[in-house]
Amino acid sequence: MEKYYQKEIECATRDEILKIQEEKFLKQAEHVWNDVPYCRKKWEEKGVSLSDIKSLDDISKLPFLSKDDLREAYPYGLLGVPLKDCVRIQSTSGTTGKRVVAFYTQEDIDLWEECCARAIMAAGGTDEDVCQVSYGYGLFTGGPGLNGGSHKVGCLTIPTSSGNTQRQIMFIKDLNATILCCTPSYAAYIGETMKEMGMSPEEIPLKAGIFGAEAWSEEMRHDIEKTLGIKAYDIYGLTELSGPGVSFECSAQTGMHINEDHFYAEIIDPDTGEVLPEGEEGELVFTSLDKKAFPLLRYRTRDICVLTREKCSCGRTHVRMRKPKGRSDDMLIIRGVNVFPSQIETVLLNNGYAANYQIIVDRVNNTDTLDVNVEMTPEMFTDNLGEIDARQKRLSEGLKNMLGIKAKVNLVAPKSITRSEGKAVRVIDKRKI
Amino acid sequence: MAVNQISVFLENRPGALMEMCDVLTKNSIDLRALSLSEANEFGIARILVDDVLEASTVLKDAGFVNSFVPVVAISIPDTPGGLASILKILTDAGVNLEYMYAFVGREAGSAYMVFKVADVETAESALSQKGLNSVDQEQVKEL
Predict the structure, then answer these.
(1) Chain B neighbors of A376, CB-CB under 8 A
(2) Range of the domain at A64
(3) Most buried pick, A263, A282, A381, B77, via CB within 10 A?
């Protein structure tokens, strides 16, 4: 039985959703025009005025907002309400460039937490569940978002935050946690640590995991599902829009449902900015329909993905987005070829290696080099040099086939690659360009 | 009675072997024989030690992936043709050698060969038929 947090809206008809979106959008456009001078100036530069915005279709007239805008407007430039009406600040993880800070009113937080509650129920969660939130708490939205969602569902919430992995496992076991929320790389690490402690998945009560904030491959999903004995669900979000819960997976696991009553999604051609029809791959652009403190219209996520409105077996009607290949921030351009860390991860897991790896990009004599450090595991080790060599060759070939460029594989000692408790540092780019 | 050799994965970087030896030293493990093989980007240290279980555990705890590999260790007569006579026995028994290495014992003039073969049982029975008994795990400590 599929569970819903807000069935009426999650399963609303297309017309109902469009009606809600248009109503909210027109109100939001007015709010931005009146209260965010930074955006009003951008509209005017494009020759757009509030009187031009009469329907949802007119959204295509509006200028885009990018991460650069957020940096330029840092810290208060995009604020939509007086500071005294804000109750919270969250910030991006700052893996790329300057941090971005986002503001929330209490209503903004409520709707964000509702989005997370929908995700938890879609993963089978109810008020009978014990939900361990092992995302970092603090500026990072992962912990606070799922924590709030878990409360809304009525789960008994264990706010472990990240770190102290053995204690995490102890809590899961002793306090009967049935749902785990964290980054996929930390979930994998918890699984690895359990294995080392000699624990099998049957010994822990977990049944589901909600993992996000990082790009992860299908292969990694299978791996985590096996080591933790759970069903693993993807969740997607951006601090700029609220945090996790912008979209989430249901039991069908054929893409993530975007919470369309709060976020309006478009796919554009990243080069021309032209809106693309449903089913085409392009950059995901979001409009926050009802956030008051940080009302972003047409925010370019740099995530490359596809939207589909095909009927979903879970009963939800909200549009689904395919798992993005990775934020374009994660994308590397090596010898002119686009490389996503998630592609490398897929090849590693397909070849029997663990998802512990590091990608090192450098430039030697004006040519980019790509090194992939992979940890040797007891399972992959043999006394036979030839066999290890052959496996390494197969891995190199697999990488070449996947990426289209040559990668050098280095086998390194177990545990020599730092484990992540939050977002994994997968890439070291030494190129000085 | 085959001997358990420990094969240890070593990263290709300065100090990798030294760190492995440090771990053994700190745990008072006596290294009886060592052979190094290297591929392009990594190496394998093959060692015989007095306490295999302890050595394997402390190495694993220190982050060295390792495995047990059964090998045949045998005393070699210190005379011309000493090794050849043993190789002949193995050849006649149809035993294929994967690799081998030598080490000397504490006793003056004693030398040993370690053979990694595909079929340890056949090798040992061929040798024992000629009255040659391979070293067993207990004896490694005494050599």
Answers:
(1) 9, 42, 65
(2) 1-325
(3) A263
B22 and B48 together in one domain: yes
* pLDDT tens-digit map of B89-120: 999 999 999 999 998 888 877 889 999 998 89
Nearest to A388 among B39, B66, B69 (CB): B39
Cross-chain Cβ contact A413/B65 below 8 Å: yes
ipTM entry: 0.83
Question: Which CATH number does the domain housing residue B106 bear?
Answer: 3.30.70.260
Interface mutation target, options A196, A383, A409, chain B, most CBs of B under 10 Å: A383
For A314-332, the pLDDT digits (tens) are: 999 999 999 887 666 667 8
Minimal Cα–Cα distance from B70 to chain A, Å? 10
Domain count, chain B: 2
The number of C-beta contacts closer than 8 angstroms across A and B is 49
- Domain span at residue B52 reads 3-69
For the residues of A37-99, what is the DSSP string, one character each?
HHHHHHHHHTT--GGG--SGGGGGGSPPB-HHHHHHTTTTTT--S-GGG--EEEE---SSSS-
Let me know whether B54 and B86 are in one domain: no
Domain boundary among A272, A293, A325: A325
Nearest chain A CA: its distance from B79 CA (Å): 32
